[in-house]
Specification:
Strand order of the largest sheet: 6-7-8-9-10-11-12-13
Transmembrane segments: 59-76, 92-109, 121-141, 153-176, 183-200, 212-233, 253-272
Oligomer: single chain
Structural class: alpha/beta
Number of helices: 26
Number of strands: 13
Largest sheet: 8 strands, mixed, barrel
Biased composition (Basic and acidic residues): 694-703
Domain EAL: 462-701
Protein name: EAL domain-containing protein
Pfam family, one: EAL
CATH superfamily of the largest domain: EAL domain
Length: 713
């Protein structure tokens, strides 16, 4: 709102407040002048904003003008000594103005994002009906029962009752989605409250109090005018951000609570003031309000129950395929073990894996890979018998429980399922029989070993688990690493590498590590991956290697015992996946890495709102920004601005920045413009065995330094 307009409105409010001390008929003239100026300011401010006029505020502005005309007419009627008959022409204009104002605000709400689908109607109606209680007790019913009341007067009073309900209801709906405390909405609400207070003052007494009521009414008009003129009117009309699309649950409860309390408060206030309580009428209104509140709470509880069921289903099922997820699998296989143990029937477990899925993903793209997973899941699910369980275990790997079948029967059954894969895709499978009294995780491990064997034997087959003299879990045995270059953005020289783990049987590396932790050897697997990367003899001198480490591994003494004493040249990338460590505990673990000569990095920064706090609390040497913020940043200004803010925040805390997932020249140009130190991605170098690019392309001058943004990796 312009400063001169703010001062004008403040002056009008002051003039309205001084109205009771103005002598004689001058107060009537001042009253009308304040109204004229308010209306003129509102029209002058809103007319250029034609989009707001079309959204309903034009109707509301006409209504405010009509209210001022009605009030000015009432002043003229008093001056002309037309008596106190009801209804007078000013009353009819005022009633029409209230109805038009309700219609205008309703039109705004009907088009407002978040309200267009009818959200909050019952809550706002409850508050509107509740507000009718004091209006009936102090304004409408006393006049309705006056001697000589005409039918026309009764109709007009009934119209005012309807107008109160409508006006309060349509304004209250905006409060449900007002996340930011919109100034215009607050001004409108304040103006309406003052108008109601003025009407109560008029009904309570005359003379000086009546003049005070007129003053209060004018101050309310100034507030409404300020609401129409304020710049936040656009926010109230269109919303501001994604939050404004959703109803605030606490506001729903507040509106329902206030609406249900107002009939009771009205009765108590009338009794305290010695006024008629109108108990039967207010009681009927209270019952109506209570019925609506009960109905709405029933709706809300039903909705909560449905959402709870939906969330429960989502927690138990895989989002992509709709199959039970890993958590559900653990529950189902435990139930199957209990059933097999109590009934004495056999139980077999199988693991199925799509062959060459990573190659398919790389050549056909991830959407095609997702589509294949859905088709395979649907094909296999259609063949399931009663009692059989098929779950997505991770990536392209599926787990299956076969109760009541021995190993030979289960082998035939799983092979039948496996061959039903969508052609030309093939799959491999391993089957193991559960031994009574053993942990089902051991059976799953045996099935995993059979799956490994099927993969090594040429794929596209189903093999049974066989006793093995090698008790080493497959991932510990088969772990290999590839290196992806990290370049300095200023000259695109390779200054470091990230060590990435690979396994021959699956492309889902993360799922393999999670599975290893579940089976009790994840700490050893992470220690081996770190040791192998650091002790690689072919690593060029002075070149750092980035390695991911999880909080879960840090908790293990066995993990620390397996690490080399000297980690110079290693950059420990702390995974974004939390495992319940307090910040102080986590800092102690990171200091243990630093004591061994390692640097600290934060991986996948920007995916969680807590990342800013983690940068401050953990004091990393480098923050790696997640690929999701980098992809298409050259085509999305908002995304580029988020990147700029994140990079600036890191730099302000002396933290170097490396961005991940740079795949296009446009993305690289954006990264360069943001003063980012380092980058990696397919555009700059793909993962490969050994040290891609050779020593000759490696910049040897710098090394990661705790000096932050000005240091070289």
């Amino acid at each position: 709102m312009p400063g001169d307009l703010r001062w004008k409105l403040a002056g009008l409010a002051a003039a309205a407040a001084l109205l009771p001390v103005v002598p004689g008929r001058v107060d009537d003239v001042a009253h009308v002048l304040v109204e004229i100026v308010c209306v003129a300011l509102a029209w002058r401010r809103l007319v250029p904003r034609r989009d707001l006029l079309r959204r309903g505020w034009g109707v509301a502005l006409v209504a405010v003008t009509m209210l001022c005309v009605a009030d000015a007419a009432a002043v003229a009627e008093r001056s002309m000594l037309l008596g106190t008959s009801f209804p007078r022409p000013s009353d009819l204009v005022a009633l029409a103005a209230c109805l038009v104002l309700s219609a205008g605000v309703f039109v705004v709400g009907r088009q407002r994002a978040g309200l267009e689908s009818g959200n909050g109607v019952i809550e706002s109606v409850v508050l509107g009906l509740g507000s009718l209680a004091p209006a009936l007790s102090f304004l409408i019913l006393p006049r309705l029962t006056e001697p000589g009341r005409t039918a026309a007067g009764s109709v007009v009073l009934g119209g005012f009752a309807v107008a109160v309900v409508l006006l309060v209801s349509v304004v209250a709906r905006f409060a449900l989605i007002d996340h930011r405390g919109c100034v215009s909405l607050r001004l409108f609400a304040g103006g309406l409250l003052l108008w109601c207070a003025a009407e109560f003052a008029e009904s309570a007494a005359s003379g000086t109090v009546s003049t005070i009521g007129a003053s209060v009414w004018l101050i309310g008009l100034v507030l409404v005018t300020a609401g129409l003129c304020h710049s936040s009117l656009r926010e109230l009309t269109y919303g501001a951000g994604l939050q404004s699309l959703h109803v605030v649950p606490s506001r729903q409860v507040w509106l329902l609570g206030l609406g249900s309390l107002m009939p009771v408060v009205s009765l108590g206030l009338a009794w305290a003031l010695g006024r008629p309580t109108w108990l039967p009428e207010i009681a009927v209104l209270g019952v109506l309000v209570s019925g609506l509140v009960w109905f709405r709470f029933t709706q809300l509880m039903t909705h909560i129950a449905e959402q709870s069921d939906l969330l429960s289903d989502l927690a138990r099922s895989d989002e992509l395929t709709g199959l039970p997820n890993r958590r559900s699998w653990n529950h189902e296989v435990s139930r199957a073990v209990v059933l097999a143990q109590t009934s004495g029937t056999p139980l077999c477990v199988a693991l199925l894996d799509l062959d060459h899925f990573k190659t398919f993903n790389d050549t056909q793209g991830h959407p095609a890979g997702d589509r294949l997973l859905r088709e395979v899941s649907a094909s296999w699910s259609a063949l399931l018998r009663d009692g059989e369980v098929l779950a997505r275990y991770g990536g392209e790997e599926f787990a299956m429980a076969l109760p009541g079948l021995g190993l030979d029967e289960a082998l035939e059954r799983v092979d039948e399922i496996r061959r039903a894969v969508v052609l030309p895709q093939t799959a491999s499978a391993g089957v193991a029989a559960w031994v009574p009294g053993t942990d089902p995780a051991v059976t799953l491990k045996d099935a995993d070993g059979a799956l490994y064997l099927a993969k090594r034997s040429g794929r596209n087959m189903t093999l049974p688990a066989e006793p093995s003299t090698d008790s080493t879990p497959g991932p510990l045995r088969d772990l290999s690493t590839v290196m992806q270059p990290i370049v300095r953005v200023s000259d695109l020289e390779i200054v470091a590498f990230e060590s990435l783990s690979r396994f021959p049987h699956t492309a889902s590396v993360e799922a393999t590590f999670l599975d290893a932790h579940d089976k009790g050897y994840g700490d050893l697997l992470e220690a081996i991956a770190l040791r192998r990367a650091v002790e690689e003899p072919a690593r060029p001198r002075g070149v750092h290697v980035f390695v991911n480490v999880s909080e879960r591994a840090m908790r293990s003494d066995r993990f620390w015992d397996a690490l080399p004493e000297d980690l110079t040249g290693a950059v420990i990338e702390l995974s974004e996946v939390r495992d319940g460590l307090a910040t102080t505990e986590l800092r102690e673990y990171l200091d243990r890495f630093r004591a061994k000569g390692a640097r600290i990095g934060l991986d996948d920064v920007g995916t969680l709102s807590a990342d800013f706090a983690r940068i401050v609390a953990l004091r990393p040497d480098i923050a790696k920004i997640d690929r999701s913020l980098v992809t298409r940043c050259d085509l999305d200004r908002a995304q580029a601005e988020v990147l700029r803010m994140l990079v600036g925040f890191a730099h302000s805390h002396d933290v170097a920045v490396c961005v991940e997932g740079v795949e296009t020249a446009g993305e690289l140009e954006v990264i360069r413009s943001l003063d980012v130190g380092y980058a990696q991605g397919y555009l700059l170098g793909r993962p490969g065995p050994g040290w891609p690019g050779g020593r000759d392309r490696v910049e040897r001058r710098g090394e990661v330094s705790s000096a932050g943004r000005h240091a070289a990796v």
